[in-house]
Amino acid sequence: MDMDIDRDSTPTVEAGQTGVKPKDDDLDLFPDIDARGLMDTEGFGGLRTVPMGTDILEDLTADSPRQYMLFYRHFFPAKAYFQWLNYDPSPIPSKSFMNREFSFHLVDETFMRFQSFRTLDEFKKELIRMCPSRIDLGAVYNIRPKDKAGVRANAFVAVSKEMVFDIDMTDYDEIRTCCSGGDVCVNCWEFMTIAMKIIDAALRDDFGFKHLLWVYSGRRGVHCWVGDERARVMTNDQRKAIVSYLEVVKGGAQQARRVKLQHTLHPSLSRAYDILQEHFRNLAFTSQDILRTPQHWEKVLAMIPDEDVQARVRKAWEDAPTRAPSLKWDVLETVVDKVASSSPKKAKELRDIPRDIMFQLAYPRLDEKVSTDIRHLLKSPFCIHPKTGRVCVPIPIESCESFDPTSPPTVRTLVEELHKYDAAGDKPKVPDWQKTSLKEHVEVFERFVKGIQKDIADKKRKEAAKSMDF
Question: Which entry of 2, 88, 166, 190 is annotated as an active-site residue?
Answer without folding.
Answer: 166
